[in-house]
UniProtKB/TrEMBL annotation:
It holds the Pfam family Gamma-thionin. Keywords: Disulfide bond, Membrane, Signal, Transmembrane, Transmembrane helix. The chain crosses the membrane at residues 20-36. Signal peptide: none annotated. This is Defensin J1-2. Residues 51-96 form the Knottins-like domain. It comes from the Eukaryota.
Length: 96
């Protein structure tokens, strides 16, 4: 009797998982399609998201504080800057 109950229970639990997956799988597919379909931004919007980077001309020495680099880059006409790389250089950035 216990063996029969276990087989009966395991059969229905696996069947329940299949039924749940039949409902969940299409929802996941629709979500993925919506997520990846928004990737077409067009050339105008892609160009707006590009960032031009250049090394700071006024920053001297190793860059350890991004706040100082950011300030100097703003005085050079950039939107901001940060310390970058192994050699700790101040890199300024602005939209292209």
């Amino acid at each position: 009797m216990c063996v029969l109950f276990y087989l009966h229970h395991s059969y229905f639990s696996s069947l329940r998982k299949i039924v749940i997956m039949k409902h969940v799988f299409p929802i996941i597919i629709v979500f993925m399609l919506l997520l990846f379909s928004t990737g077409d931004l067009g050339t105008e919007k892609v160009a707006a998201w590009r960032t031009c980077k250049a090394r700071s001309h006024r920053f001297r020495g190793l860059c350890f504080r991004s706040r100082k680099c950011n300030y100097i880059c703003k005085t050079e006409g950039f939107h901001g800057g940060h310390c970058h790389g192994f050699r700790k250089r101040c890199i300024c950035h602005k939209p292209c």
